[in-house]
Amino acid sequence: MASRASRAPRRPATTPAPGASAPSKPLWLLYLVGWLVPGAGHLWLGRKQKGIVFLVTLPLMFAIGLALQGRIFPLTQVSEPLALLAAIADLGVGVPRVIAGLMGAGAGDIRALTNEYGNAFLITAGLLNALVIIDAHDIALGRK
Fold first, then answer.
1. Is residue 15 a part of any domain in this protein?
2. Which of 59, 85, 104, 144 could form a disulfide with 96 if both were Cys (CB 3.0 to 4.6 A apart)?
């Protein structure tokens, strides 16, 4: 059994990998671009294949949610905590959410059999984009 002294010290999760350079692009701009257009952060970092996959699938997932009569929750429902959380998740997909709101889409139809599935698609698209932004952050810091 190896002694504790012979083990390599663990790096804190917030430091870049050894030999990794500081990010050449401002991280806040990377977050903003990645939020506005799903996958754009990866495209900006040169990860074209991943970026295109995210650029296609996340807005498509959002569109499927709209087609399934899902509801885009407004941020004004502060008295209903779960509806507020759903609204924040909906915003996570960025520009597709803004475009849908401007077009008047996403009213949802509670009577539709697919309404809950649509809600799940809309919310999940936004939450997945948050994970995509975190992935772009790790790539920018040289952790991946």
1. no
2. 59
